Amino acid sequence: MFVAEEQVFFESADLKLEGLLNRGSGDAGVVITHPHPQYGGSMHNNVVESVVKAFKKANFTTLRFNFRGVGRSGGHYEEGVGEQVDVQGAVAYLEGLGLTAVQLAGYSFGAWVNAQAINKMHAVAKMIMVSPPVNFIDFSFLNYTPQLQLIITGAQDDIAPPHMIQKMLPGWNKHATLRIIQGADHFYGGKTGEIASIVEAFLKQA
């Protein structure tokens, strides 16, 4: 049985952001980001929760949070620009807790924001993207990123189509693993357990 997550607030520039923290026993941590705020995305999303579950099982300290303008987080939506600062603030918060091996995991819009923010930080060890929305938002900025280790998408995901990701993957990191969940679209109805299982297996190999 997992210990309940603790509500926390941390700084992102001049804003306070709302998050849920679960402390693991080691020095590994992960920041998990949510889908598009203007389409109802928040840290309580079912895909986000499945990723949190997998990292908890691997004894990571997990931090999921609401981007600016969502829930009790201050500020307003900033088209992915201010949200990159939010990711940096979340990573800094985990570092402030003494964690030295911090990873990023993001779903949809959150994956896009993480992919932009990662090159502005030196501390991030690895990155997982779930359904990076390559058919919805421009990903041409993303060049070779060795931290990118795992990408998950659905076989019927028309926002993160497998064939588009396969084409882009060599430029991102040819050694990264792409896992395609059969029968899943962008929202993973009834398939979130498979996401958790894939992430759990990845963390055991790492």
Task: Give a verbal description of the structure.
The radius of gyration is 15 Å and the shape is globular. Strands 1-2-4-3-5-6-7-8 form an eight-stranded mixed beta sheet, sandwiched between helices. The protein has 206 residues and is α/β, with parallel strands linked by helices. The mean pLDDT is 97. It starts with 5 loop residues before the first strand and ends with a helix. It has a single domain (6-195), classed as Rossmann fold, CATH 3.40.50. It is built from five helices and eight strands, in the order E-E-E-H-E-H-E-H-E-E-H-E-H.
Spell out the key features of this protein:
8 strands; 206 residues; alpha/beta; 31% helix; globular; Rossmann fold; eight-stranded mixed sheet
Largest β sheet strand count, sense and barrel closure: 8 strands, mixed
In CATH, the topology is named Rossmann fold
| Shape estimate | globular
Tally of distinct domains: 1
* Count of strand segments: 8
Radius of gyration: 15 Å
CATH architecture: 3-Layer(aba) Sandwich
The helix tally amounts to 5
User: What is the arithmetic mean of pLDDT?
Assistant: 97
**SSE pattern:** EEEHEHEHEEHEH
Short note summarizing the structure:
Helix content is 31%, strand content 25%. With 206 residues, the protein is α/β, with parallel strands linked by helices. The protein has a single domain (6-195), classed as Alpha/Beta hydrolase fold, catalytic domain (Rossmann fold, 3-Layer(aba) Sandwich), CATH 3.40.50.
Task: Produce the secondary structure layout.
Layout: E1 6-12, E2 15-22, E3 28-33, H1 46-57, E4 61-65, H2 81-96, E5 101-107, H3 109-117, E6 124-130, E7 148-154, H4 162-173, E8 177-181, H5 192-205
Parallel strand pairs: 3-4, 3-5, 5-6, 6-7, 7-8
Antiparallel strand pairs: 1-2, 2-4
